[in-house]
Write a structure and sequence with these properties.
- The radius of gyration is 24 Å and the shape is globular.
- It has a 13-stranded mixed sheet with strand order 1-2-3-4-5-6-7-8-9-10-11-12-13.
- It has 415 residues and is an alpha/beta fold.
Length: 415
């Protein structure tokens, strides 16, 4: 490596979140005629743009072209060290690496690029040593998936003083039970976490309550717990926790939230406190949904719900859209997903008359027994002016109806 280039890279490694250091390096690369300078600028520009920005297509095309031509050379320093390189903000930001390799060659890994996200592989023989490596302190995100190590992994993570800088932690499919989650909930070192993913484990109500009561997760914005066993009380405890006041998304898909106990809970409506709520594949019935949507008079906790996913709850049927259409607490809803909920034409007609859902911009009705009769009423109705993305079943509606719906609802909005 050119010694002058190395001086720039040292600054970037020392201040990995400072884009100014990357732009200074890009200027130098431009002067040297190195296309990496343009790549740094393109990716930095993309990182600042919203999804619908008109500049994105051209920048994405430039990014693809540069990677197609130069990826092999830019990934060369990682050969024999790591795989799965992902570039962000001009450099390899995310890699997959075996735990023993991380312990042996951590210095080489981080000398090659300001890596911020590591997927650790084959960790079982290296616990807890790998989580005690000082190089863990370089990371903003850590993923350990499908290692099936259970409570020892959670205990090692909770005891690692080097994880204090983590913003995102994913410990998915690791056979975590409630005891493992209790270790994490008691860990002050995880106090800076903004995203926690514990999907595909064996966490029950006790583990959910431990997370809800944790004094160390006040910064958490996203909590993913797909495919566990929280039950309705566990989901209610998380959604209603004052300790998780910053929570913006709660993913509790496939957790048995729709079990009969839901009807006996005193505060099922606390689920409405979470802005983005995934309740898909929970065996929800119309009675269960009504319990969630019914708030007692004078309830002080605000309704913050803006995105709701009820997909893959076929027990809901046409009752779900009727309940949603009549609920007075959903005026802030902007996205509603109802894939595979056994909703027919009568249900779609109910949605068509829901004036309070006028802010919904995304509606998904995929895999429901809906035909032209219901969709025509929906198309001709006076509401849903904000809708910009409508997904209807592939089988059922005619081509003519699909075209009518696309013309009204799926045309891109002008900036």
């Amino acid at each position: 490596m050119h010694t002058e280039a190395e001086a720039f890279l040292q600054r970037i490694r020392a201040y990995p979140d400072d884009d100014a250091q990357r732009l200074i390096f890009a200027d130098w690369l431009d002067e040297e005629g190195d296309p990496r300078g343009r790549f740094v600028r393109v990716q930095l520009a993309l990182s600042d743009l919203p999804a619908g920005a008109p500049e994105r297509p051209a920048l994405l095309s430039a990014e693809r072209d540069l990677l197609a031509e130069h990826r092999e050379a830019w990934e060369a320093p990682f050969r024999g060290l790591a795989t799965g390189c992902v570039f962000r903000r001009g450099f390899v930001d995310e890699v997959k690496v075996e735990a023993r390799q991380f312990l042996r060659a951590g210095h080489e890994l981080f000398a090659a690029s300001p890596v911020r996200h590591v997927h650790l592989l084959d960790v079982s023989d290296s616990l807890p040593a790998v989580l005690q490596s000082p190089y863990m302190g370089r990371l903003a995100a850590l993923t350990i998936h499908a290692q099936h190590t259970g409570e020892p992994l959670a205990r090692a993570a909770a005891r690692s003083e080097h994880l204090a800088g983590l913003k995102r932690l994913a410990l998915t499919r690791n056979r975590f039970g409630d005891d493992a989650v209790e270790h994490l909930a008691r860990a002050p070192v995880l106090g800076n976490l903004e995203e926690l993913d514990l999907s595909e484990n064996e966490i029950g109500e006790t583990g959910a309550r431990a997370l809800a009561a944790s004094p160390h997760l006040a910064n958490l914005r996203r909590l993913e717990l797909r495919s566990n066993a929280l039950g309705p009380a566990g989901a209610e405890a998380l959604a209603g926790s004052d300790r998780l006041a910053a929570l913006q998304r709660l993913g509790v898909s496939d957790n048995g939230v729709g079990l009969p106990r839901l009807l006996t809970l005193g505060r099922a409506h606390d689920l409405l406190r979470v802005p983005v709520l995934d309740l898909s594949a929970n065996g929800l019935t119309a009675a269960g949904l009504q319990a969630i949507l019914t708030r007692p008079p004078g309830e002080p906790a605000p309704v913050r719900l803006c995105e709701l996913d009820l997909s893959f709850n076929p027990e809901l049927g046409d009752a779900a859209p009727r309940l949603l259409a009549k609920c007075p607490h959903l005026s802030g809803l902007t996205a509603l997903r109802l894939t595979n909920c056994a909703i027919g034409d009568d249900g779609v007609r109910a949605l068509a008359g829901a004036a309070q859902l006028g802010r919904v911009a995304v509606l998904d009705l995929e895999a429901n027994p809906v035909g032209d009769a219901g969709l025509r009423v929906f198309h001709d109705g006076p509401h849903w002016a904000a809708l910009r993305s409508l997904t209807v079943p592939r089988i059922g509606p005619s081509l003519h109806m699909r075209q009518l719906l696309d013309l009204r609802f799926n045309r891109p909005r002008r900036a």
